[in-house]
Design a protein that fits this description.
about 45% helix; rod-shaped; 5 strands; alpha+beta; 5-stranded mixed beta sheet
């Protein structure tokens, strides 16, 4: 069996394992195996194929890891609008309690509201939901 065929089979197995495990980094190593298969098609000796697979696959892993480290981290679930549909919605607070909480009617139910900025003076008006803290809406003034 030709070296290139072995590299293509290894790449196919790596993709299949990646589909089962969900390890995206395994796809980066597969890129290295594909590069080694192409090197084998060009007639490179086995040691060159292995070095190409290691350099290209390892380089792809490092590049992907570096790219991911630059991207911002997702918000925690209680403040992530992709998880909580209430994030970003507005509520109208008519009156604040002495303990800086309020009760508002929102989505057909009574909710307890608290200010995101504890030092801000609570005043009636429109507020934007910033996060959920248990069963409380944490809001900020619009």
């Amino acid at each position: 069996m030709a070296d290139s065929t072995i590299w293509w089979l290894l790449a196919g197995v790596a993709v299949a394992v990646e589909l089962v495990t969900g390890t995206f980094y395994l796809l980066m190593l597969t890129i290295g195996m594909v590069a080694a298969a192409l090197a084998a098609h060009l007639g490179a000796p086995l040691i060159v194929q292995i070095v190409v697979a290691a350099l290209v696959g390892g380089g792809a892993v490092v590049a992907w890891h570096w790219q991911r480290s630059k991207s911002p981290k997702p918000a925690q679930a209680n403040a992530n609008s992709d998880v909580q549909m209430d994030i970003g919605e507005t509520v109208h607070v008519q009156q604040w309690n002495a303990d800086a909480t309020a009760s508002v009617k929102y989505r057909g139910a009574q909710w307890t509201v608290q200010l995101a900025d504890a030092e801000a003076a609570p005043q009636p008006g429109l507020f934007k939901v910033k996060e959920l803290n248990g069963n409380r809406l944490v809001v900020a003034k619009l």
